[in-house]
Amino acid sequence: MPFQSKESCFVSVTVSESDEVLYVAANREKLEHVVGWLQKLDFVPASIYLLPYCTSEPPDGWQHNVLRGSESIANDNSASTAMLREPCCLVLLLVTSMAASSPHIVFIVADDMGWNDVSFHGSDQIPTPNIDALAYNGVILNSHYVQPLCTPTRASLMTGMYPIHIGMQGYPMLAAEPRGLPPMKILPQYLKNLGYVTRAVGKWHLGFYRKEFTPIYRGFDSHLGYWAGSISYYDHIVQDIYPDGRTLNGHDFRRNMDTAWDLEGQYATDIFTDEALRIIQEHDDSRPLFLYLSHLAVHSGNSGKLVEAPQEFINKFRHIPEPNRRTYAAMVSKMDESVGRVVEALYEKRMLNNSIIVFISDNGAPSVDIFQNWGSNYPLRGIKATLWEGGVRGVGLIWSPLLREPRRVSEELMHVSDWLPTLYSAAGGDIVHLGSNLDGVDQWSSLVNNEGSPRHQLLVNIDERDQTAALRVDNWKLILGTFGKNGSLDGYYGDDGYSSSNPKYNISSVISSRAWKSISSTTRPATDREVHKLRQEATVKCNNKVFRHGTNCNPSVSKRPCLFNIYTDPCEENNLSVINTDATKKIYNILLRHIQSLIPQLNKPWDTTGADPTKFNNTWSPWVD
């Protein structure tokens, strides 16, 4: 509401220690002149809000100094400045520096993380204060879709294409499979063309049987991490068990092309975090940085030690009685700590004010069955490797001071393939240069300005071998096929995360987190009321209060497709295909058109003899060079 005070106030401009956040005392009606005046100084408004009092000082808790060049501003007799030397009330105008270069991009991928395993989705069981800080102060992507498995999601992210259009829609690569992401220009190469330094840390899982398929041959300037699908957290060994009964074991940790034996025994999450911090601290910030931080966490490791974490972190979760779930919670907590340290490093390097941070999970958690890690997708149906929401509706968020309408939950459709054109656009590229064969769409304007998604349909996946498929069209989702043995993975799994023994959600721990403290230097942080509201909005609620183990959609029995209105039925409980035959037929026909463009899966027979690590000093290495 407008203020009526007639106090006199002079134009006051102050900034935080990062020299990026400005407070302007001005007459509300003259705000447009302030904006124009700041733009002359190469500053652009990020958001505007009012203080409930007249003062020329910024809020408590801000350290500030005088803006460089302010003396010349004070002596400026231009109309826009002179008009402000009149009775006025304080308008707080938050602006960020318009950098000469493209924004830094930090893209963080969690592996096999469950929907219910970030606390901003409503569960108190596993606090994730740093991830929550980004979520509440950015945009929570509550309809962000990924592929059901690791390799297909990463292939789609890097190419901007549905996996069915590059033959990558099937089972993920095992280490001895002579296959890689098909040769084509991918995300880091596009960003290099825009002047980016490109760094990869962590998991690759897009092929290494020839060196040309490894990260530094695919557009990354450096890579520290592993090439296969998963490793143990301390010994960094990949153990693959093949259908013929043969087991291959080998070390898989690389510094570019060299084996990083010196890191053996160190916890993988800490290694990746330290490397990300080193990259940020040593980065020449006159050039934009693309940092792809693809965690091992929280994927399971090898047989006998599926979940691993430092004991001091495990001890924080004594309220979780199931021992494997308790260790899983510690793994999540270590990754959350990593996120906070990375955000803090960006702030300390003075890069945060011109950064985009994305956090996603590559697929849902395998609560049961193969690759079990005890994660939870509650209350969503299904798990990893299924096309139910629990397998493909992934945790997602974006934070950046470039967002003009942050602190919100988006239910707009988004697919992992959208990140290539979206980030390319955010980096200043013209998406025309990406060609016309991409399936991903540019969502940058939608994310920045809170506009509707340009997507109205989204192919979840088609697996021609398993005869499964799913398609979203607006609020509708059609799903064909069944998962697991006789539908054993068509139900609901995982800890609901709600227990009287859980610690109460602590907003103070979020506000005191490294991430919150750092991002508060660049944007107005969310209020307590906003945090509560956002958490409520981000929490998925089923139609049935009781966690169900069966619905009227049982494809293993009926052999028929199921149709859901995901907006009203996010937990896929009420099959509407019988009473909405027109919608079912329409979406099925769209799916048939997608099937016509499908490239058969490129999976190759495993070469367990050629790839055997014993031939390469017990390391997994390119074997067809």
UniProtKB/TrEMBL annotation:
Its cofactor is Ca(2+). One of its GO terms (molecular function) is metal ion binding. Residues 103-428 form the Sulfatase N-terminal domain. Signal peptide: none annotated. Keywords: Calcium, Glycoprotein, Hydrolase, Metal-binding. Pfam families: Sulfatase. InterPro entries: Alkaline_phosphatase_core_sf, ARSB, Sulfatase_CS, Sulfatase_N. The keyword NAD does not apply. The keyword Ribosomal protein does not apply. Belongs to the sulfatase family. This is Arylsulfatase B. The lineage of its organism: Eukaryota, Metazoa, Ecdysozoa, Arthropoda, Hexapoda.
